[in-house]
TrEMBL record:
<feature type="domain" description="ABC transporter">
    <location>
        <begin position="3"/>
        <end position="237"/>
    </location>
</feature>
<keyword id="KW-0813">Transport</keyword>
<dbReference type="InterPro" id="IPR003593">
    <property type="entry name" value="AAA+_ATPase"/>
</dbReference>
<dbReference type="InterPro" id="IPR003439">
    <property type="entry name" value="ABC_transporter-like_ATP-bd"/>
</dbReference>
<dbReference type="Pfam" id="PF00005">
    <property type="entry name" value="ABC_tran"/>
</dbReference>
<keyword id="KW-0067">ATP-binding</keyword>
<comment type="similarity">
    <text>Belongs to the ABC transporter superfamily.</text>
</comment>
<keyword id="KW-0547">Nucleotide-binding</keyword>
<dbReference type="InterPro" id="IPR027417">
    <property type="entry name" value="P-loop_NTPase"/>
</dbReference>
<dbReference type="GO" id="GO:0005524">
    <property type="term" value="F:ATP binding"/>
</dbReference>
<protein>
    <submittedName>
        <fullName>Amino acid ABC transporter ATP-binding protein</fullName>
    </submittedName>
</protein>
<dbReference type="InterPro" id="IPR017871">
    <property type="entry name" value="ABC_transporter-like_CS"/>
</dbReference>
<dbReference type="InterPro" id="IPR050086">
    <property type="entry name" value="MetN_ABC_transporter-like"/>
</dbReference>
Amino acid sequence: MKLEVDRVTKRYGATTALDGLSLHLASARVMVLIGPSGGGKSTLLRVLGGLETADEGTVQVNDHRLIADPAALQAYRRQNGFLFQQFNLFPHMSARRNITLPLEKVHGHPPDKALQLAEQALGRFGLLEHADKLPAQLSGGQQQRVGIARAVAFSPEVLFLDEPTSALDPEMTAEVLELIQELAEAGQDIILSTHEMGFARAVADQVAFVAAGKIEEFRPPAELFGAPESALCQRFLSRVMRY
Ligand SMILES: Nc1ncnc2c1ncn2[C@@H]1O[C@H](COP(=O)(O)OP(=O)(O)OP(=O)(O)O)[C@@H](O)[C@H]1O
């Protein structure tokens, strides 16, 4: 994927979440956002995915120039897959129905095609045996895997993952991280925010350190984790890598 983000500002009332942020990415499969809580990772992810619009500045993702036009943004959003930190499955529907419903209602597939795509996605992630279960009957890791299956069932252009493992225990985290790694290896473009530094290092082509609404450092993981240049990034890494 390719990104051209220029001087983007996003405010929520008196809070400036993104503060003239610029980011240029010529080519990468997986871009990972790291940084302190409240630094702007989720906001950047939401702006790049077309879920929010910037107040100022310009955003281009691949060939899509994002503009504040509701219909154009909706069409753009439909090409992307999303998963957030809290499980966002419909609680009263089976895993299978959680996948077929948006394929029918959002993507306009007829029921038989939606079912075929859902079965493919469930099979791909080893979830067929859980297809008839409700979310409450699945572990947190399995729920996130269903969420990812749903997000990739229609082959999205970019998959956006906002702290997909933050609500999971370590074993379930590993399960979900392995799946994300498999997707990346299969060629899926991914932008994700995470607090898992080991995973960021393993899966990212490029890591952006986001703090106070700006990109403080943007480099391949071996460089950023091996020898961070900005003082903020050094301090952040020395704090989070200590434990
Ligand atoms: N919908 C919103 N309404 C008001 N303020 C918001 C909203 N979304 C984000 N903010 C504020 O914008 C700033 C950036 O938040 P953001 O969620 O992007 O940070 P983050 O780096 O993803 O944090 P975390 O790691 O804790 O998820 C914070 O000060 C936050 O409180």
